[in-house]
Automatic annotation (TrEMBL), chain A:
Residues 6-257 form the ABC transporter domain. Belongs to the ABC transporter superfamily. This is ABC transporter ATP-binding protein. It comes from Ramlibacter agri. It comes from the Bacteria. One of its GO terms (molecular function) is ATP hydrolysis activity. The lineage of its organism: Bacteria, Pseudomonadati, Pseudomonadota, Betaproteobacteria, Burkholderiales. One of its GO terms (biological process) is transmembrane transport. The keyword Chloroplast does not apply.
Automatic annotation (TrEMBL), chain B:
This is ABC transporter permease. Residues 96-311 form the ABC transmembrane type-1 domain. Its main location: membrane. GO terms for cellular component: plasma membrane.
TrEMBL record, chain C:
Its main location: membrane. It comes from the Bacteria. Transmembrane segments: none annotated. Residues 7-255 form the ABC transporter domain. Keywords: ATP-binding, Cell membrane, Membrane, Nucleotide-binding, Transport. Belongs to the ABC transporter superfamily. It is a peripheral membrane protein. InterPro entries: AAA+_ATPase (IPR003593), ABC_Ni/Peptide_Import (IPR050388), ABC_transporter-like_ATP-bd (IPR003439), ABC_transporter-like_CS (IPR017871), P-loop_NTPase (IPR027417). This is ABC transporter ATP-binding protein. It is found in: Cell inner membrane. One of its GO terms (molecular function) is ATP hydrolysis activity. One of its GO terms (cellular component) is plasma membrane.
Automatic annotation (TrEMBL), chain E:
The keyword RNA-binding does not apply. This is ABC transporter permease. Residues 94-282 form the ABC transmembrane type-1 domain. Belongs to the binding-protein-dependent transport system permease family. PANTHER family: D,D-DIPEPTIDE TRANSPORT SYSTEM PERMEASE PROTEIN DDPC-RELATED (PTHR43386:SF1), OLIGOPEPTIDE TRANSPORT SYSTEM PERMEASE PROTEIN APPC (PTHR43386). The keyword Cell membrane applies. Pfam families: BPD_transp_1, OppC_N. Its main location: membrane. GO terms for biological process: transmembrane transport. It is found in: Cell membrane. Keywords: Cell membrane, Membrane, Transmembrane, Transmembrane helix, Transport. The lineage of its organism: Bacteria, Pseudomonadati, Pseudomonadota, Betaproteobacteria, Burkholderiales. SUPFAM superfamilies: MetI-like. It comes from Ramlibacter agri. It comes from the Bacteria.
């Protein structure tokens, strides 16, 4: 196994919230001494109860938050100490897909505009090649014919299409890893499958790795190489065998709460509890 | 609560210091000759100028004067107005209650009136009534307060003779008790009306928008699903939840009522802080101007504080969240 | 036995901007007393609109067309006078649970009071306060005196959803609409709420319409299922039958999707 | 009219303006002059024909060389606190207040000595004669202040008694409700018993002139002095019968003037000044600004000063309204019409009636001859600074008041003002010939004064550093219930009501 | 909300966000009842302002032979005490009021907007300092500013705009601040940061267009507030006499309220009209946004 591309070292993230009046401070450890390695090319699923710090963890990996304590490292160097070149490498290597595709695309930019800014910022193509470059990426996430999507605003796309655009945008920089915070939960059941398929296909084709955060245990079971279970700001269990052989109490509880998509079993589950 | 209060007071100190410095420097920039203002439109005899300037140390260097001012301020002294020949604090304390009375009476009418209109137009079943209500509201809102005041005086004081034309009470009155209160109300009627019409309509417009917003909230559906009567839904669920934006705006408006008071007090010769401010500016009575503005800054700060408290009272979420 | 709710050829066409959305386009729906019926379908298929139209909780909307009948115990709710409708909601009629318990509870009112508002009027053996506590206990809350004095934001999502259920039950309805009652909740919490619903359904013998896009929920609770797509009912079947042998391709796809994760996991 | 009856309170409205002191040695605010008539008294005053009337001085004599003035004082007069009034008070006032008194600036330097040889005699000896001297001892200009109150105080200018005065007038100060009213009650020690008839006089402080009128129409006050622009409206209200509007005979002129800044072009060019004067339709100023209640000024000397005014110098004849002539003059001066205009000048004024209205008329008049006028309407303080201290103006409108002699307010517009003193000639005009003429006119004996003032007026008419537009008439509105007002004009030739004479008819 | 279809390829009819193009915005606002009236009134006022020299029978400072003439054939709105034609002055006054309205509102937008953007986006001490300054300006009375400005620079129209701007920018700043505070945590902003787009790009291209809607509404309201403030200042005699303004006319009319009602009624009505126009326009903007934003709307009715 190669060295981890991203890793957390004893990271604690404390949110200080003030109430409206601005006095009594409240400290909350959203993450509490978490260590984690993410390897290139693997799919790591993070599951856990609501409010357990999953999104916080994602933000840290994406350098959207600074950790209160501990370090986030990219290829062994702390994010704080990255040199200019390393930082550019980091930004290209680590990309993100968010929960709500309509919220993660600027509602006032056409698809071509949204993606065009990235092309220009990172000099992915010259002015003549820009349209072609964008269309290529759109096509690679299954938006065909790509030309028909270029001039649309996000609200003229279906949820699934929006999420595809978001993925295409993330893929433009040829990242090594994509951090996806609940990429499925705001999508319809029928579309969730398509997006999962797409992610799988991308992984096969480009070797990109994923950190996927999700509530959908069934889906995670299907796609993940490794699973981390979070509970109250800590990773309580992590490994490849989590679904098959849960160790921690909370993991067991979580698995037990799944409703089987079969009436007989489901009813039985309700009756037992 | 105590800690909160202290915190807010400490918070306000830099603001006040900044206000004071700002005005001090501003007044420095405004040409003005307080001694000339005392004498009027005849030349000032040099002896008189010298006497006044020496006594009140008008020629001290600016930093010295600022230093003295802050030093006095620490001792609760707002300085001595050489123009009024009285301590500034005295004057401000004498005038402030009058402005507060006017503003309080104004808001006491404007806010309930505006809320009522806002709720009625916002929830009305009939489109025509909403339309008529909002139209009238907008038209009244658009009338400048001071002009409205003048029109009211012409109509209700001069033509109909119902109310006095100006002032805050009969000069020769010996009335006490209820009589006194009635007298005050009689004199308050027109200024309050002028004030309440403009500000009340503003409140009404905000309230209507807020009510309509509230109407879109889920809990109104719940309330309907419970089979509550219309009136119960309005009073129990809509009014309180729609008041929040109002609190912010009303708080800001009350805090900065001094600006409006300048006009209103001018129109009705209401001898409050607004008139004092104008008069002091025009006579370059710098310390008095400072006093009035400090008072108004305090009012703003206080009202911000009250708004926060009210917020928490109206919306229990605020106490704990964030 | 007479139907509790009999919806016939309901059409709800809405006007938005310039276009007309056929949110519900000719739906028939039947609920027998004491029966639990599920409505599934993807987002935007008209499930909520159907429930809201029947229970007349859709106002200030410009209807391009609203037609059909919704007979509740034989009376058409769509044609009912507002006052009659109100009485029906007040007592022994129908009530509704919504997806997002935070938005549907008044944030500035203590939950006890919100429950009290919904209590059915008339003579009761128990004093009002006791009735509130009893209701809260019935939906599975403990320490009810404390809970009644809380504001909604002071409660957890699961507790809030239970308060919603208590409010819905307070008028002793014969029919309960539940519009996505558990989508906002954690898997563990979801399970507990569903249990509660099931228990109440069985104890009170009231009719229930569960609207969801999670087939798992329907599988666990409902006797019969309607599958909606594009404002139309594309399939109506016994729950077991639907899962075993979906007739409509759309239903089949839905079921396949739901199972897919599982199967994939098993395949791996 | 019947016999005067005792009792009652009159409410009189005043513009509080910028009251900082009641003591009219220290302030020249008109409102304070009104008020001084209530609480203060002086050596003498005038009747309606401008003749001197004795007050606290029963008689006075002037030495033949015009240098020694001897006043015999009234006996058994008491201050409002009961202390006796003597010549020591008069002497004290001259010694301690005169230096703060803006009107006495001319007199004080030539006072050789002042003495009180006995309690009822007061003698002033001058180094050189000044014909206007008696006018400077008028009660309005020189109210007598109590020695026993101020004595020993280092600083009489800021003494509290200036705001709670002890005086010799018919009423005594009682209270001051800041921003609302100032109350005076009958002075039990008043020397002119049984006057006053009224119990008290309350001054209602109403800054806005329109509101003073409103209050009068509604019967809330019994006296106020309407602004020129309001007189017609006040006359309208008169019909209701509650009050009447009276014209006041006065010799305290109030005249609208335009100053030219002669330090700079084009105003250093006499032709331009003449042209601008002739371009102004002064009848229109009278009609529009003063609603006809004024007259065009004839020359530098106000015609109220009947002994001094010489009608042969007449602006109406010298500089009649004549836009064509004005245009020709400007052409001559080198300001031909180009694209519809000749030049752009600034007109500075205080944004208040009547100055703003004067400015508007002047603006359109000047516009009509191709002079583009940029208006600078300012706040009084800023205006004063700009015009008098910085001299940063082109032309400026103001209305100047004076007292009963050119020394008191007229001279200041024409004499050399080197110290940038406010409200003294701001034009930069500095002509020794003029200064000499002014001095001569003030010092020649009474019978030679008219001729001297003619010279004075001629120089002004020639040089035109300032042009005088109109002379305003004064009016007051008084409740019809208030009686004894005829007598008031005998007391107050100037501008002031005489509350000592007034009484209320019982309803 | 658009119906999002499950099958890719079937796309709802293309609908561009309303505020995108100016033309589209105009069409959108004309569809709202209030906005329509407001826009028509504003257009009318703007037309009057532009064409004043051609419509007005007299110059703004021109004296006519008749003073205090009642409204009639010769003088539609009568004349004032110095014989100026009120009708012409009200027409010319439209220029001042509209200029103050637009000018001050726009300047407040620029000043307040910049402060709000910096404070809202960067937070920390920048936020603390800027918001304190904003509070400071909310505390000081406008009259003081205007006097200061007049004292330092003389009466000038630009100063008046500046002074009114000083009075209203804090509101604008707070609003923009709130918007940025809210939007900076949005996912599309996070996405832009992850994509390493530059900070100016994020502030100006990503957030700004999304923050504008309530701000534009506020600008329209501010314009009406500015007109009212100008009227108040004119009434206190602090306006620029070289530009006829309605507030000034009211100031001059004070002494003639009972004698010449026309001197105050027409300018007063003009102020009302302009304030109403701006408010209706703002209402229209709001309504338009609501139409877009609001999904299923609930109400009290069954
Ligand atoms: N900006 C913030 N300020 C204060 N507290 C925060 C902030 N963001 C998150 N939190 C708190 O930190 C905790 C962890 O939040 P986080 O969003 O990481 O949870 P999560 O696991 O993603 O939950 P969910 O599944 O609901 O998305 C929560 O209790 C949350 O309330
Ligand atoms: N008030 C309304 N005005 C216009 N269109 C509406 C309104 N309410 C709903 N719609 C539209 O009607 C259709 C059906 O919506 P509905 O909310 O009933 O769907 P749903 O099946 O409940 O979806 P979800 O699972 O997302 O809740 C959708 O296309 C929706 O956009
Ligand atoms: Mg999360
Ligand atoms: Mg729904």
């Amino acid at each position: 196994m190669t060295a981890p591309i991203l890793s957390l070292h004893e990271v604690t993230q404390t949110y200080v919230s003030r109430n409206q009046q601005g006095w009594r401070r409240r400290y909350q450890n959203a993450l509490d001494g978490v260590s984690l390695d993410v390897h290139e090319g693997e799919t790591l699923a993070i599951v856990g109860e609501s409010g357990s710090g999953k999104s916080t963890l994602a933000k840290l990996l994406l350098a959207l938050n600074k950790p209160t304590r501990g370090e986030v490292r990219f290829r062994g160097t702390s994010l704080q100490q990255l040199s200019g070149a390393q930082h550019a490498d980091y930004r290209r290597s680590v990309q993100a897909v968010f929960q709500d595709p309509s919220a993660s695309l600027n509602p006032r930019m056409q698809v071509a505009e949204s993606l065009g800014h990235v092309v220009r910022r990172h000099a992915l193509a010259d002015a003549d090649g820009e349209a072609g470059c964008i269309e290529g990426h759109l096509a690679s996430v299954g938006l065909v014919p790509p030309a028909s999507f270029m001039t649309r605003y996000p609200n003229q796309l279906s949820g699934g299409q929006q999420q595809r655009v978001a993925i295409a945008r993330a893929m433009m920089l040829a990242p090594r890893i994509i951090v996806a915070d609940e990429p499925l939960s705001s999508l319809d059941v029928s579309i969730q499958g398509q997006i999962l398929d797409l992610m799988r296909a991308l992984k096969q084709r480009t070797g990109v790795g994923f950190v996927i955060i999700s509530h959908d245990l069934h889906a995670m079971e299907a796609i993940a190489d490794r699973v981390a279970v979070m509970h109250q700001g800590r990773i309580v269990e992590m490994g490849t065998e989590v679904f098959a052989r849960p160790q921690h109490e909370y993991t067991k509880l979580l698995l037990a709460a799944r409703l089987p998509p079969d009436p007989r079993q489901a009813r039985a589950r309700l009756a037992i509890a | 609560m105590l800690r909160f209060t202290i915190f807010r007071i400490l918070h306000a100190v830099p603001l006040l210091v900044a206000v004071i410095l700002a005005i001090f420097l501003m007044q420095q920039a405004i040409p003005g000759d307080p001694v000339q203002a005392m004498v009027g439109d005849f030349p000032v005899p040099p002896a008189f100028r010298e006497a006044i300037e020496k006594k009140y140390r008008l020629n001290d260097p600016l930093p010295v004067r600022i230093g003295t001012y802050f030093n006095n301020l620490l001792h609760g002294d707002l300085g001595f107005s050489y123009h009024a020949q009285r301590p500034v604090l005295d004057m401000v304390l004498e005038r402030a209650p009058r402005t507060i009375l006017l503003a309080a009476a104004g808001f006491a009418v404007a806010i309930p009136l505006g809320m009522l209109i806002g709720v009625l137009t916002g929830t009305t079943r009939r489109r025509s009534m909403d339309q008529a209500g909002t139209t009238v509201t907008l038209i009244l809102y658009a009338v400048p307060t001071f002009w409205l005041g003048q029109l009211l005086v012409i109509l209700f004081a001069l033509k109909l003779g119902w109310f006095p034309t100006q002032g805050m009470g009969p000069l020769l009155s010996q009335a006490t008790g209820l009589q006194w209160v009635l007298e005050r109300l009689h004199y308050l009627a027109l200024p309050v009306a002028a004030f309440a019409i403009h500000d009340g309509m503003r409140v009404a417009r905000i309230m209507r928008a807020s009510v309509i917003d509230t109407l879109g909230q889920g809990y109104i559906v719940t309330a309907r699903a419970k089979g509550l009567r219309r009136s119960a839904i309005i009073w129990r669920h809509i009014v309180r939840n729609s008041s929040l934006p109002l609190v912010t705006i009303a708080g800001y408006a009350i805090g900065s009522a001094l600006g409006g008071a300048v006009l209103l007090e001018t129109v009705f010769t209401w001898p409050g802080l607004g008139l004092l401010l104008i008069e002091s500016i025009r006579t370059s009575d710098n310390l008095m101007v400072m006093g009035v503005v400090i008072f108004s800054a305090l009012a703003v700060v206080t009202m911000n504080f009250v708004v926060d408290v009210l917020y928490a009272l109206i919306d229990p979420r605020i106490r704990h969240q964030r | 036995m007479e139907a509790l709710l009999d919806v016939r050829d309901l059409k709800v066409h809405l006007r938005t901007g310039g276009a007309v959305v056929r949110a519900v386009d000719g739906v028939d729906l039947l609920v027998m007393p004491g029966e639990c019926v599920g409505i599934v379908g993807e987002s935007g298929s008209g499930k909520s609109t159907l429930a809201r139209a029947v229970s007349r909780l859709m106002a200030n909307v410009e209807f391009a067309e609203l037609s059909g009948q919704a007979l509740f115990n034989g009376a058409d709710t769509l044609a009912m006078a507002p006052e009659a409708l109100r009485r029906l909601r007040r007592k022994a009629g129908f009530s509704m649970i919504f997806q997002d318990p935070m938005g549907y509870l008044n944030p500035t009112m203590r939950v006890g009071k919100q429950v009290r508002e919904a209590l059915s009027p008339g003579e009761h053996a128990m004093p009002e306060q006791e009735r509130i506590y009893a209701l809260l206990r019935e939906v599975g809350l403990r320490d009810v005196e404390y809970v009644a004095r809380r504001y909604p934001h002071e409660l957890s999502g699961g507790m809030r959803q239970r308060i919603m259920i208590a409010i819905a039950l307070a008028s002793e309805p014969q029919l309960l609409f539940a519009d996505e009652p558990t989508t906002a909740l954690d898997a563990t919490v979801q399970l507990r709420v569903l249990e509660t619903l099931k228990r109440l359904h069985q104890q009170r013998r009231m009719g229930m319409v569960i609207i969801t896009h999670d087939l798992g929920v329907v599988a666990a609770l409902c006797d019969r299922v309607y599958v909606m797509n594009g404002g139309k009912v594309v399939e109506e079947a016994d729950t077991l039958a639907l899962f075993d042998a979906p007739r409509h391709p759309y239903s089949a796809r839905l079921i396949q999707m739901t199972r897919r994760g599982r199967e994939a996991a098993e395949a791996a | 009219q019947g016999q005067p009856q005792r009792g009652g309170t009159v409410i009189a409205a005043l513009d509080p303006g910028a009251i900082s002191s009641f003591n009219t040695h220290l302030t020249s605010l008109t409102s304070m002059l009104f008020m001084a008539d209530v609480w203060a008294d002086g050596l003498m005053t005038y009747d309606r024909h401008g003749k001197r009337l004795p007050r606290l001085a029963t008689e006075w004599t002037i030495s033949p060389d015009g240098k020694v003035y001897t006043f015999k004082l009234r006996q058994n007069v008491k201050w409002s606190d009961g202390q006796p009034f003597t010549s020591a008070d008069v002497l004290f006032t001259l010694n301690n207040f005169a230096k703060y008194n803006t009107y006495l600036g001319k007199l004080l330097p030539i006072v050789d000595k002042a003495e009180a040889p006995d309690p009822y005699t007061f003698v002033v000896t001058l180094k050189e004669p000044l014909t206007a001297t008696l006018d400077l001892f008028d009660k309005e200009v020189f109210p007598i202040m109590p020695k026993h109150v101020y004595e020993g105080s280092a600083d009489v200018a800021t003494h509290p008694a200036n705001r709670a005065p002890v005086g010799l007038g018919p009423f005594k100060f009682q209270s001051w409700d800041s921003g609302r009213s100032i109350t005076f009650v009958r002075n039990p020690f008043y020397w002119e018993a049984p006057k006053p008839y009224l119990d008290s006089v309350v001054f209602a402080l109403i800054p806005n002139p329109q509101q003073r009128l409103n209050a009068m129409m509604r019967g809330e006050i019994q006296w106020f002095r309407p602004e020129a622009a309001q007189v017609l409206a006040a006359r309208e209200g008169e019909k209701s019968g509650g009050y009447k509007v009276l014209r006041i005979e006065n010799n305290a002129p109030e005249r609208a003037v335009v100053d030219f800044n002669m330090r700079k072009a084009p105003f250093n060019n006499l032709k331009v000044r003449q042209a601008l004067f002739q371009a102004i339709d002064r009848k229109r100023v009278v009609a529009d600004v003063y609603q006809g209640l004024a007259e065009t000024a004839k020359n530098a000397i106000p015609n109220q000063f009947t002994n001094l005014y010489d009608p042969s110098v007449d602006y109406d004849k010298l500089y009649p309204y004549d836009p064509k002539k004005a245009g020709a003059l400007l052409d001559e001066a080198g300001y031909p019409m180009k694209d519809g205009k000749r030049m752009t000048i600034e007109l500075t004024y205080i944004t208040r009636p009547p100055y703003d209205a004067v400015a508007k008329v002047v603006q359109s008049n000047w516009n009509a001859v191709g002079v583009d006028v940029k208006m600078a309407g300012l706040d009084p303080q800023i205006w004063t600074d700009k015009v008098y201290k910085q001299n940063a103006f082109d032309t400026s409108v103001i209305s100047l008041t004076g007292r009963t002699n050119p020394v008191l307010g007229v001279d200041r517009s024409y004499i050399c003002n080197t110290g940038n003193l406010p409200f003294v000639n701001p034009t930069g005009y500095c002509n020794p010939e003029m200064d000499k003429a002014v001095n001569t006119a003030a010092t020649v004996p009474l019978d030679k004064q008219r001729a001297a003032y003619k010279v004075y007026a001629e120089i002004v008419a020639r040089d035109l550093n300032q042009i005088t537009l109109a002379s305003q008439q004064m009016h007051e509105a008084v409740s019809t219930r208030l009686q004894g007002l005829d007598a008031q004009f005998d007391f107050s030739f100037n501008t002031h009501p005489n509350w000592a004479e007034a009484w209320f008819a019982k309803k | 909300m658009t119906t999002t279809s499950a099958t890719p390829g079937i796309v709802p009819s293309p609908r561009r966000p309303v505020l995108h193009g100016l033309g589209a915005a105009l069409r959108g606002i004309l569809r709202t009842r209030h906005g329509f009236i407001g826009l028509v009134l504003l257009a009318f006022l703007a037309l009057v302002a532009l064409c004043a020299p051609w419509i007005a029978p007299y110059g703004p400072f021109q004296q006519t032979p008749l003073s205090l003439a009642a409204p009639g054939a010769g003088h539609l709105f009568g004349t004032d005490n110095v014989g100026r034609d009120i009708f012409s002055m009200v027409l010319y006054g439209t220029r001042a009021s509209l200029a103050i309205g637009f000018g001050a509102a726009f300047a407040a937008l620029v000043v307040g907007g910049s402060v709000g953007i910096l404070a809202g986006y960067f937070g920390g001490w920048i936020e603390a300092v800027l918001m304190r300054v904003t509070e400071l300006f909310q505390t000081l009375p406008v009259v003081l500013f205007v006097l200061l400005a007049v004292a330092l620079f003389g009466t000038s129209f630009w100063l008046l705009i500046a002074a009114v701007t000083l009075a209203i920018w804090p509101v604008e700043a707070r609003l923009v601040y709130g918007q940025y505070l809210k939007l900076r945590d949005r996912e599309f902003v996070a996405a832009a940061r992850v994509l390493d787009l530059s900070t100016p790009h994020i502030i100006l291209r990503e957030i700004l267009p999304n923050a504008m809607q309530p701000v534009i509404v506020q600008v329209a309201l501010d314009a009406s507030v500015a007109i009212l403030i100008e009227a108040g200042l004119g009434f206190l005699g602090l306006s620029d006499p070289n530009m006829v303004s309605w507030g000034q006319l009211l100031f001059a009319a004070q002494d003639f309220m009972s004698q010449a009602w026309w001197m105050s009624v027409f300018p007063g009505a003009a102020i009302c009209l302009a304030v109403i126009a701006f408010n209706l326009f703002a209402d229209g903007l709001n309504e338009m946004a609501d139409n877009r934003r609001k999904g299923p709307q609930v109400g009290l009715e069954d």
